[in-house]
Amino acid sequence: MRCEIFRHRSLRKSDYGNDFKDSELMIKQIDNINQADRNYLVKSYYGRKFLAYLQAYGTDYDFCRFFRLEYDNCTGYMFQINATLVVCADHEFPAGELEQFILMNLPYRVEAPSYVLKNIENIEGYHKLKRTQFEFSEHMPEHFNEAELEENPKLDEAYAIITEGFPNMKNYGLWITENSHRIRRGISRIYLYKKCTTATVIYDVDDHVLIGQVATRESARGNGYARELLYWLGHKLRLQGKKISLFALDYRESFYHEIGFKEISVECVIERKL
Prior knowledge:
Elements: E1 3-6, E2 26-30, H1 35-41, H2 45-57, E3 64-70, E4 75-81, E5 84-88, H3 96-105, E6 109-111, H4 114-117, E7 126-135, E8 149-150, H5 155-165, H6 172-184, E9 189-193, E10 197-205, E11 208-216, H7 225-239, E12 243-249, H8 250-258, E13 262-272
Parallel strand pairs: 5-6, 11-12
Antiparallel strand pairs: 1-2, 2-3, 3-4, 4-5, 6-13, 7-12, 7-13, 8-9, 9-10, 10-11
């Protein structure tokens, strides 16, 4: 196994504070994982996302790197895909070296469990955003017209709609490259409904499906198209034995409450200030 240790200066125990003065964190880049690693990773959202991107890209791309975190009380994992860093760990750990990694690589977004994020949320240049995880309801779609559904739409059409809902998603080249690759590898799928509403399967790992990039053209909002598409998608995936969820930031949270989705967790991410 190739194993590159991330170190750009010598660590001092004082970096970690009194609670962790006898611990030392090591961040090691890895090029494969074993079955025990998979069994660990599949248990959480963060781990399943790690597995999905590892399946999609492998370890040969500089823009998608995978790491193991080794410290006294447990082992964790993380990966960086372009401007997003995702950390998976089941315990709090010393944040000093992770903070250094973030300051050196400057990811736009960092996702991590709350007990990890609390120790890095005040990094200079970043701010914290709350998000809520929702579980799909068992509503049946009442007015859904499958004739107006595209399960393999032109990605340009989907991107145009998504950017109306997510105006910060400005890098077309990056988006089209990543999404087309994950679709080709069978990791993701984009759905387009009535040429104006879209939703994306981000991953399907161990029968856990994460949905994202739910958006409707501004001119078509208020017609219930997003609700109908999500109801249909949830119904279809439940018939396959899947557990389906999505994340919503504060300003989108009320919509998912209104359509009957169940709130299952509240957490935060940090994003770089622009």
